[in-house]
Amino acid sequence: MKITRFISVFVHHTLLIACCLLPGISQAQDKTEFRGVWVATVDNIDWPGRGNYNSDLQKEEFIKLLNYHQSLGINAVIVQVRPVSDAFYPSEFEPWSEFLTGTQGKPPEPYYDPLAFMVEETHKRGMEFHAWMNPYRAVFNIGRSSIAANHITRIHPEWFLTYGDKRYFDPGNKEAQQFLTRVVKDVVKRYAIDAIHFDDYFYPYKIPGREFPDYKTYRQYGNGMSKDDWRRSNTDSIISMLSCIIKKENPKCQFGISPFGVWRNEAKDSVHGSKTNGAQSNYDDLYADILLWLKKGWIDYVAPQLYWEFGHRVAPFETLLNWWSKHTYGRNCYIGLGIYRANSNAARRDNTQLPRQIEAIRNTPNIQGMAFYSSSILMKNPKGWSDSLRLNYFKEPAKTPAIK
């Protein structure tokens, strides 16, 4: 009888403990947070390694990259698949990338489809794959870039403008806009990607003393608008078109933008501007009206690049974090963190800088996660921060947030 009573009490207590633990277990399983990393292919920044033009070695390198980030707790990779109007996949519109094979237009050897391979390997690990494209940059360096005979700059040179050492699509050219739409549609249609991702390169960053040479297109299409408003309307129109085509082809595919961290300075807009001191801005310098795109629901998430430290003289991290939290308009917001700047100044030599930023992100409303620039830097474990992610901040798994 004593044994029976003991068993009864033991079972009762065991069930009670289990019931108390279940909510915690469920909560852990249901935790959502975007934990992304950018993988830059332009100029072989992150992958494939410079001079690695062998397909089998590229695959090994990418699998190693994925495994490393998975071990940290990263749940999404943002991989650059179209750096300069070229392709890391077979395309009827654009040539193979020189950063993949060494010569633009040359297919990989042995032949494979890098994008299909990367998506499959990423999904095997339960991670999201965001296909990062640069919309307007067409030639990375006019003096040394490899340009294939079938590159769009050779087929339609009238669509392009030279600014500094680079060549760009003219954002006001309607035919160029349609071309870009076809390129994006093709990728969304053929590949099981989780998102199309653009970074901060819309109209190029201004070169002091030099005007972007789009005066001819402005005369043709300006319709009485100021040049600044006209430029913004060009960027608005391509984002709107792409939003429609992405959702039409695959409603589950997200459209995300990672803009420069300052939308507009308070000196230019006392109502909506941030308390930043003279930084370049999306609205006034890159002609990207991010807030409009969020309000209209054209994009699913925004990932502003807050690559500054706490207390920065021009653009303090804490000021911009709070500003973006108040301007998400119901969309997901992930904060871009510039770990590549580790040790670049006194503030960046502080080991607590990144942990403090992560804590601030997690304690700020309307912010659903973060992304790190970039992969190769994270893999070097700067200041032990990668270890900190693995052992502390990302120790508990998290799902990526759902589309709002």
Structure summarized in a few sentences:
Helices cover 39% and strands 12% of the residues. The protein has 404 residues and is of the alpha/beta class. Helix 6 (174-190) packs parallel to helix 8 (227-249).
Unreliable sequence segments: 1-28
Helix content: 25-40%
At the fourth level of CATH, the homologous superfamily is Glycosidases
Going across the biggest sheet, name each strand in turn: 1-2-3-7-8-9-10-11
Residue fraction in strands = 5-15%
CATH top level label: Alpha Beta
Distance between the termini: 59 Å
Number of domains: 1
Overall pLDDT: 93
**What is the makeup of the main sheet?**
8 strands, parallel, barrel
Structural category is alpha/beta
Can you name the CATH architecture?
Answer: Alpha-Beta Barrel
- Principal-axes geometry comes out as globular
How many helices? The count is 14
The Cα radius of gyration reads 23 Å
Q: In CATH terms, what is the fold-level topology?
A: TIM Barrel
The total beta strand count reads 11
Helix-strand pattern: HEHEHHEEHEEHEHHEHHEHEHEHH
Walkthrough of the structure:
With 404 residues, the protein is of the alpha/beta class. The chain has one domain (33-393): Alpha-Beta Barrel (TIM Barrel). Helix content is 39%, strand content 12%. The chain has 14 helices and 11 strands. It has an 8-stranded parallel β-barrel, surrounded by 4 helices. Strands 4-6-5 form a 3-stranded antiparallel sheet, with no helix packed on it. Strand 1 (34-39), helix 2 (55-72) and strand 2 form a beta-alpha-beta unit. Helix 2 (55-72) runs parallel beside helix 4 (114-124) and helix 6 (174-190) packs parallel to helix 8. The longest helix is centred in the first third of the chain and has 29 residues, at 2-30. The protein is globular. Residues 1-28 have low confidence and may be disordered.
